[in-house]
Write a structure and sequence with these properties.
The chain is of the alpha+beta class. Helix content is 39%, strand content 19%. Strand 9 and strand 10 form a beta hairpin.
Length: 701
């Protein structure tokens, strides 16, 4: 077995199926340490006696089904005992690939989304039960309400771990459901498991006081440190002005300050804060309606939310905020309504009609004086917002620029959460080392948050150590290493192409501007891409949006765009591809304007560049572009064939010329040879037989 990890993919290596002596599957369990597992006592019933030492078998149904090993009951506490129904199993064989999960002992679980795996009879391959956690009963058990269309808890779920999507860890064990086909079930939380088996404390952690890539929210106010003065200043600005814009570079903590710093102060002063994201729903106005509905209808169940959200969006579009705001303040018994528009720059990606729809409601001068609006906005996108005719008046109304965290406050961000956690501490000098590594970069906070969150998870008996900090990669390297590891663990090789397509849909990289994240809607993604998105969401690299069931997914933070090498490379490739595609479109336009002459079709160099992107990204081209390239290739092939014919003809002429020349040379040689064979004229001789130097005189006889 190996060490613990993060993400619901970890459950694949931790969830056990329990078999009785007859070989029948009787329930589930999960590994909490090497060789130790938890399950429900009723999964291994005593039959009238305490079954200590009883033999069972287990396997890993999500990883290696039917590769069974032996186990024995080491502790058994029946359900009749307060906070009981717990059994501890000692695994006696080796389970290849198995990994324990880390339990989280959290006091507050209300409204957290969670999921439980089960093996009910009607789904032999297994099913996921999606729930929202509710209140604790008097006996300590926690109620869980079914959401969406997932399976209700039934026999086959007992003993399984409950994975909390908010805390990204196991917060208890599924124990029972109400009779019949009820959407209500109950889990025994980690605190109850600890009460039954105190030795489990060695393997359990308190919830991390750090948020990694997630922004702090209003409920995290007690954990939000280092921004007290700025929070008070912005709260005063909000009280004095209808519209306020909080501007700062990516990663400086704008969202956290607005949600966990300003919102609690507004509530203390008699206000009712709500938060929305313009890109968080099908339209910005629907996102506003989704934010207002919980405070307008606090008791509304999950199943009624979609229809009520649509109805409320219609009321806002027709009547504005006046009536709705008055009703909210009446229901909540508050004096003012604060609407936080987080990631205001997301409006840049919306249609003019959608922008107008939201602006008319939120920024109407006739809106009630009790309504205040606080927007968070990236400073590198302010120019684009100010250039927009409808957004400029809003963004320039009242601007507060958020500066980087000062060194003394950064020390508080690092040290205070650990100091407030009983039994946990840094090794000497580690906190100061981390502060130095974080430096003064205004965008360092998310990198710091990831490093601290992972360091907390890897603490050693309550101590955050230098050794673990170095292994994680420090402030600068922790995000990249973690993202790479999560990708390796959750994206098998067969899914890599689909996962790369998913990443491409999560980023918007306009020419001449910084890349930003975007929400990819469920309908944009194929089944495989959506399955990958859900797996990566469990690692906190991605975040599911739109409630339960979710209807969108996005990157957890902008910092992933630059801090995750795989994603940064993808963005660079996409920009290079778009540059090539734009040049192709310009060539296509020139060709069509000139009447489609063959000599303006792409040449060899352009076609060679096309081969770098095709066929892998051919579906991202339009029909006209594909036809343009097809004609260019056909024209190129025709030219090549004509060139070959011409070259062949020239070679033939050359060969014939050489043959003729050779024949001429042969004939000339033959003529010279014939002349050499003819009889020579007689030679005159002088007296005595010597040749005469003079020619013979014809007058002489």
């Amino acid at each position: 077995m190996t060490g613990s990890g993060r993400g619901t993919g970890v459950l694949d290596a931790a969830v056990l199926r329990v078999f009785d002596a007859a070989g029948r599957a009787v329930g589930l369990g999960f590994l909490v340490a090497d060789g130790l597992a938890l399950t429900c006592a009723h999964v291994v019933p005593g039959g009238g006696v305490v079954p200590l030492g009883r033999a069972v078998e287990v396997d890993l149904p999500l990883l290696r089904p039917d590769a069974r090993v032996a186990a024995r009951v080491e502790l058994w506490v029946p359900a009749q005992v307060a906070a009981g129904d717990v059994a501890v199993l000692r695994i006696e064989g080796e389970l290849p690939g198995a990994r324990p999960v880390r339990l989280i002992d959290a006091d507050e679980l209300r409204e957290h989304p969670a999921r439980i795996f089960g093996l009910p009879e009607r789904s032999p391959g297994g099913a996921w039960h999606h729930v929202v956690l509710r209140h604790r009963r008097g006996d300590g058990w926690v109620r869980a309400d079914l959401t969406g269309r997932s399976f209700a808890v039934a026999p086959g779920f007992s003993g399984g771990p409950v994975w909390d999507d908010e805390l990204s860890g196991v917060v208890g064990m599924m124990a029972m459901a109400e009779a019949g086909d009820s959407p209500v079930s109950y889990l025994l939380p980690t605190s109850g498991l600890l009460a039954v088996w105190p030795e489990l404390a060695e393997f359990a952690l308190p919830p991390s006081p750090f948020r990694g890539l997630r922004p702090f929210r209003e409920s995290d106010a007690a954990l939000f440190h280092g921004r007290r003065d700025e929070s008070a200043e912005v709260a005063r600005a909000v009280a004095a002005h209808r519209w306020t814009a909080l501007v700062g570079p990516p990663g400086c903590g704008k969202s956290s300050l607005a949600l966990a710093g300003v919102a609690p102060l507004v509530r203390e002063d008699g206000g009712c804060p709500v938060a929305m994201r313009p890109g968080g729903a099908a339209t910005p106005l629907r996102a506003l309606a989704s934010a207002l509905l919980p405070v307008l209808e606090p008791g509304l169940g999950e199943t009624g939310r979609p229809a009520e959200t649509t109805a409320l969006a219609g009321v806002l579009a027709g009547q504005g905020l006046s009536g709705v705001a008055a009703r909210v303040l009446e229901v909540q018994r508050r004096e003012r309504l604060l609407i936080v528009v987080d990631q205001f720059e997301e409006l840049l990606t919306r249609s003019p009609d959608e922008i107008d729809e939201l602006v008319r409601v939120l920024f109407d001068a006739r809106a009630p004086d009790e309504v205040r609006v606080l927007c968070t906005l990236r400073s590198d996108l302010v120019t684009l917002v100010l250039a927009h005719p409808r957004l400029r008046p809003v963004a320039s109304a009242r601007v507060r620029e958020l500066e980087p965290v000062r060194p003394e406050r950064l020390r508080e961000v690092i040290s205070r959460p650990v100091a407030d956690s009983p039994g946990v501490d840094y090794e000497p000098d580690l906190a100061e080392r981390i502060r130095t590594d974080a430096g003064a970069d205004p965008g360092a906070l998310p990198l710091l948050g990831v490093a601290l969150d992972l360091l907390w998870e890897h603490q050693e008996r309550g101590v955050l150590t230098h050794r673990r900090y170095e292994e994680l990669g420090g402030v600068a390297g922790a995000l990249g290493r973690y993202a790479g590891s999560a990708w390796h663990d959750h994206v098998p090789e067969a899914d890599e192409a689909a996962a790369e397509r998913l990443l491409a849909r999560l980023v918007r990289a306009p020419r001449g501007a910084a890349a930003t994240r975007r929400i990819a809607r469920r309908e944009e993604l194929g089944e495989r891409e959506w399955a990958i998105a859900r797996r990566l969401a469990a690692t906190r690299l991605l975040v599911l949006r739109g409630g339960e069931p979710p209807d969108g997914v996005e990157l957890a933070h902008e910092v992933l765009i630059s801090g995750w090498g795989r994603l940064a490379d993808r963005i660079h490739q996409d920009r290079s591809f778009r540059d090539w595609r734009d040049s192709l479109r310009r060539a296509l336009d020139r060709w069509e304007r000139a009447g489609r002459p063959p000599d303006l079709l792409p040449t060899g160099g352009a076609l060679a560049a096309a081969r770098c992107w095709l066929p892998a990204r051919e579906r991202e081209l339009g029909d006209a572009e594909r036809e343009f390239l097809r004609r260019a290739r056909a024209h190129r092939s025709a030219l090549t064939r004509r060139r070959r014919i011409l070259v062949s003809a020239l070679l033939l002429v050359l060969v014939l010329a050489l043959l003729l020349a050779a024949a001429s040379l042969v004939r000339a040689g033959d003529d010279r040879g014939g002349a050499a064979a003819a009889p020579a004229p007689p030679v005159a001789t002088a007296p005595g037989g010597a040749p005469s130097a003079r020619p013979p005189d014809p007058r002489r006889a």
